[in-house]
Amino acid sequence: MEAPCAEPAEPTGPDPVPLTEPADGVPPVVADPSALRQAAAALAGAAGPVAVDTERASGYRYSQRAYLVQLRREGAGTVLVDPVALGGWLDPLVEALAGTEWVLHAASQDLPCLAELGLRPSTLFDTELAGRLAGFERVALGTLVERLLGYRLEKGHGAADWSRRPLPADWLNYAALDVELLVELRDVLEAELTRQGKLEWALEEFEAVRLAPPPRPRHEPWRRTSGIHRIRNPRQLAAVRSLWETRDAVAQERDIAPGRVLPDSAMIEAATRGPQTEGDLLALPVFRGRAQRRMVSVWLDALKRAAELTKSELPDVGQAHDGPPPVNRWGDKDPDAAARLAKARTALAELSEQHAVPVENLLLPDLVRRTCWQPPEDVSREGVAAALREGGARNWQIELTVEALSKALA
């Protein structure tokens, strides 16, 4: 499968025009059932794709719920919905959007919290993913809008605490701008993908994102604590695990981001220092603060539970891997696998450059590693294609990479 044009079109025209507010102004926030029914009726009576975005409070809250939903459709204008004020009841909106195409930027970030509200697209166009497949090196929304549409978006509140009420006017202005030009950007990117012969690739990717199952819970998520790589003592690892699990329970109960309950650095320091009393724990820098002083007994109890574990109950220093070992160990463990991976990576890098598609979008790196570590018994083109398909690769990815991978595996 050859793309007739692998390079994205160069921008033309004057310098970008600053876009500081929506053309129609910022609409009032929909926060009661009557307003929701009116907004849903307007969206249902309009035409064309629907631009959709959400605002969360990831750095502030434990949950990943949506605290604002933004929508825009030609003929209906922009709608800002407060799902919290509505108690999560968005049935009129669900009905109004049924069967429509949704346009999102980085859809995989927003779809889970939209699904919690009963909102699921029938068809999807992801402008970030489209930008990647079209070969643009920088695919942030503001960057693509500036390059392809000639406008510079007002930015600056994406990491704000969107659980705050009432929401400030400048935040709502920012939120409305995120969907102001999304459909126009979609149209330009669709034309660019068509020009490059990649539209079918993109449609397959969009559908895979739309139908992707929820991510599975991580095995031993406490091992992702920042700085844990410095700890090689099983008893200290048990202390980190106990503090992490205690912190997670507190954060979930209070709906506060775990890092705001207790920083990772504080857990690592407490685990390595091994305080025996409340006084010892309060002597550590982070634990001197007012919030930690109130919870000092909670943290000390967590440390005591870890200290009382039997040897068989302690965690392993080496983390169990679901799949191949780290690549830097392949040369010692299986030189043939290391050679296969090196050849595969070289071939994929060449295809990436040839088609102006990021190598990670050609095939998931994890799938490449797994296939090279444990190849299928049949390393013919057909056998490798079957293995890739079983691993979740899309048709366009298989057609593009199977020949190179079968040679690398052979």
Automatic annotation (TrEMBL):
Region annotation (Disordered) maps to 1-30
Give residue ranges for domain HRDC: 233-313
What Gene Ontology terms describe what this protein does at the molecular function level? 3'-5' exonuclease activity; nucleic acid binding; nucleotide binding
Highest taxon in the source lineage: Bacteria
Write down the Pfam families for this protein, in alphabetical order.
Answer: DNA_pol_A_exo1, DNA_pol_A_exoN, HRDC
Instruction: Return the protein name.
Output: Ribonuclease D
In terms of InterPro entries, this protein maps to: 3'-5'_exonuclease_dom, Exo_C, HRDC-like_sf, HRDC_dom, HRDC_dom_sf, RNase_D-like, RNaseH-like_sf, RNaseH_sf
Q: Which organism is it from?
A: Solihabitans fulvus
- SMART domains listed in its UniProt record: 35EXOc, HRDC
Q: Which GO terms describe its biological process?
A: nucleobase-containing compound metabolic process
